[in-house]
Amino acid sequence: MADSPNHSIRTIAIDGPAGAGKSTIGLGLARHLGFLYFDTGVMYRAVTLAALQRGIATDDEDAVSQLAEAVHIEVLPPHKDDGRHYTVRLDGEDVTWAIRRADVDAAVSVVSAFPRVRQAMVAQQRRVASNGNVVMVGRDIGTVVMPDADLKIYLDATVEARAQRRHRELEQRGTPSSYADVLASMKKRDELDTSRATSPLRPADDAFIVDCTHMDADETLAYVIALVEAQKAARADMPQHSTRVARSSLVHPSSDR
After folding, report:
1. Is the pLDDT confidence value at 238 over 70?
2. Which of 212, 216, 228, 232 is the most exposed place for a label (fewest CB within 10 A)?
3. 179-185 contacts at long range (C-beta below 8 A, 24 or more positions apart)
4. With 60 as the cut, is the pLDDT of residue 184 above it?
5. CA dihedral 178, 181, 184, 190 (to 10 degrees)
6. Mean pLDDT across the chain, nearest whole number?
7. Which are the contacts of 75, defined by CB distance < 8 A and separation ≥ 6?
8. CB within 8 A of 246, min separation 6: which ones?
9. Domain containing 219 — which CATH number?
10. Which helix (H) or strand (E) holds 74?
11. What's the pLDDT tens digit per position in 89-129?
């Protein structure tokens, strides 16, 4: 049965901690659905990069906030075949790879915790979401950016599993690192993300929590796609007021494997 306009799923929010696989799963889901993939974290990375380029201390809340309100950030479909999933422009400059620098990694959690920075970025993110047909990935999408998203997913895993994945990624890129250092950095990131005063990382009350500790990326994506299809079917078959009840009818993956 085709989705009716009132029951279709056009906005999907994916939240979760660092290293949970949000980008991989969000991109795969967007491709499966033919939706726009929008990783909101790139906006905070762009602001962080802008501060570093201008010699602004990333812990100077007022200066960084003013900068966030002034810079122009665009997230566009990829225009180069170099492995990118999107193109990020900062005041017209392609910074898609520059925002992945180690110094940006080290400072982005501090920058993204500033209330005015988040307000400036959320306004832009909501404009994108208003067009629908979007899979939006971040840390406060289901709770702040798109609280009325048609489907909310919180992708989680133990910090040890997430650190192992990130450590493998760094090794595959030829970046020297130790598991202990990656684990310590990830624990610090988790603390910053969950304890910030504005938009702390947490699952939305009506989000599906998907624990992927014992699943690889392919298994997690298959599960999430099945979740979306089950919710689309539930929305098509039930009155609109019943779609929220259907959220609890699909079993979450077990951590026992």
Report:
1. no
2. 216
3. 183/159
4. yes
5. -80
6. 87
7. 38, 39, 42, 43, 86, 87, 88, 128
8. 231, 234, 235, 238
9. 3.40.50.300
10. strand 73-76
11. 999 999 999 999 889 988 998 999 899 999 999 988 898 88
Residue type for position 124: Q
Amino acid at 214: H
DSSP for 114-138, written as a single string: -HHHHHHHHHHHHHHHTT-SEEEEE
Number of domains in the chain: 2
pLDDT for 71: 94
- 3-state secondary structure at position 256: coil
85: closest CA among 123, 21, 36, 18? 36
- Burial environment of residue 254 by CB neighbours within 10 A (0 to 12, 13 to 18, 19 or more): exposed
Among 78-87, 104-113, 206-215, 248-257, whose mean pLDDT is lowest? Answer: 248-257
Residues 6+ apart with CB under 8 A from 160: 183
Return the ∠ at Cα 213 (arms to 182 and 100), rounded to 5°.
40
pLDDT at residue 75, as a whole number: 84
Distance CA 246, CA 147 (A): 18
Predicted TM-score of the model (pTM): 0.78
Final residue of a domain: which of 132, 154, 174? 132
The boundaries of the domain holding residue 55 are 42-132
Tokens of 64: 């960084």
In a domain, 2, yes or no: no
Mark out the alpha helices in the chain (DSSP H runs). Answer: 22-33, 41-53, 61-70, 102-112, 115-129, 159-172, 179-195, 217-237
